Amino acid sequence: MKTELKTGTRRAREQRAFSLLEVMIAIGIFFMAVFAILGLVSSSLENARRLRRPMVDAGAVAGELSLTNKLVEGMESGDLSDFLGKEYQGYKWTYAVSEVQSNKLFQVDFIVQSPDAGNPVISKMSTLFYRPQSPAGSLDGGMGR
Length: 145
Known about the structure:
The chain is an alpha+beta fold and 145 residues long. The protein folds into 2 domains: 2-52; 59-140, Pantoate--beta-alanine Ligase, Chain: A,domain 2 (2-Layer Sandwich). Helix content is 41%, strand content 24%. The protein has 4 helices and 4 strands. The protein has helices at residues 2-16, 20-52, 59-65, 81-84; strands at residues 74-79, 92-101, 105-113, 121-130. The chain has a 4-stranded antiparallel beta sheet with strand order 1-2-3-4. The radius of gyration is 35 Å and the shape is rod-shaped. The model has no long low-confidence stretch (mean pLDDT 81).
């Protein structure tokens, strides 16, 4: 009777151990999970790097122009870093003012260009401004610029 108990315990011990195949499958699953997590961390770091670049749009130039009381027909251009700071160094802005109604309603078309080679356009915007204090435009008999 004692021998049967010992054999039963040995079988119980053998059944609790993992086979080599089970261990290899577990290691494979573990490494797949680790590589998936590393991929997510890598893409998160890339997105964080993109967020550090300045977000540039024509709204900043439009905001500066909206502070003026008078508009004169013509074109203006300049460097975005003049009024937004040195992190915008090299970005160029251009706007063209034209009178669209004889009641001093002006359309302003804004363009912001990148400092990269060829100066690709980053942002375009068109707005209307009513400026009754402005000098006579081309529709009012004025000469513009």
